[in-house]
């Protein structure tokens, strides 16, 4: 048996994980600092406190989520009582990226355990310190047959993908997402793919510019822009673009000082390869702010670009770093033309006081999720499903949805024996007209 039916046992496992994360919080903060100088504040908000909150919420609700849920029966089956049973999938594989290296292992792990699965996690090889502490927490907390942490890089991930799983939960790039989907298809294994994209941030003319700039700067430069839901590029109405840029510069300076390299609140790029990739995106572009780099420390300052060409390297793919292109638009047709050039993004942000305009944008474009008058924060509400659409992913999680993601939802009708309406049984002669009417009444 590779799943755990005993809810009490599952709850105990989550409690043990909660205590382990609490015990190791300082070591986790240090590991993330050692990996890419992630500021302690950001680590607490986006990694440890986030994980602890997810654990508490799941522990509180596990009995409710795990028990069979009753639903209204169909009159056609009268008399019956109908249920959705939550069946663990069995053996689950979780593969995680490096950018939120603790949380993106822990959050799906919590749900997979709550749902009663046996789990193998593969953290990213690009954050060795964080991956080590994850491995330590897991080996100290769980029996290897229940949860195992496998450390390694691409080859290790490929070896794991070659095995047969009952569910695969992958967070990472769309390119690797395709590899994962192909491997899963081999055994018809269900998958969740949490991927990335090029997230537009529309700033309408009718807007509180100072506040918009503050919220964009926070969402873009947290984690040094290495966030799947960070605004990738700004589409500013041409009438406010220059003023918006002035506010953006003010807010960057307010947050990180005149020299962000000396700020304790600004993280580094994950490695030399990504640093080089980002620096090369600046070639032939108009840098209106920032653009300072120190390859020795994988540092790239918060950078604003003015009107890059839509087919330039910086606009072709997800930036995933502290570079923010500012483009202008005049009409909604411009927005459609520019946003339509790219695959469906993971997020889209709209800054506007005009609620009709915001509503129109929400309905006009297809994207994973987003905010009106803010960035990134939709991630934090566990009552909202989090996931992409199209190339930015498939499936969603967070809160109860995470539990359901790792459960097969098994419908069961329990029929009573005290009555057996004979109508459905053959011979059918003379019943056709009546059954059509009955089906219509109850549809
Ligand atoms: P990545 O796809 O390169 O790697 C993710 C994981 O896949 C790692 O554990 C890695 O070892 C493994 N991997 C890499 N190449 C592989 C291969 N050929 N075969 C099998 N496994 C392989 O992603 P990354 O660089 O770690 O993370 C950045 C990407 O993740 C960005 O695109 C970002 O938008 C996305 N992301 C999405 C979310 C989300 O919730 N939707 C969250 C964070 C990051």
UniProtKB/TrEMBL annotation:
InterPro entries: Ald_DH/histidinol_DH (IPR016161), Ald_DH_C (IPR016163), Ald_DH_CS_CYS (IPR016160), Ald_DH_CS_GLU (IPR029510), Ald_DH_N (IPR016162), Aldehyde_DH_dom (IPR015590), Aldehyde_DH_NAD(P) (IPR012394)
GO molecular function: aldehyde dehydrogenase (NAD+) activity
SUPFAM superfamilies on file: ALDH-like (SSF53720)
Pfam families: Aldedh (PF00171)
GO cellular component, one term: cytoplasm
Active site: 194, 228
Keyword set, alphabetical order: NAD, Oxidoreductase
Positions of the Aldehyde dehydrogenase domain: 8-410
Gene Ontology biological process: aldehyde metabolic process
Protein family membership: Belongs to the aldehyde dehydrogenase family.
Identification of the protein by name: Aldehyde dehydrogenase
Species this protein is from: Flavobacterium silvisoli
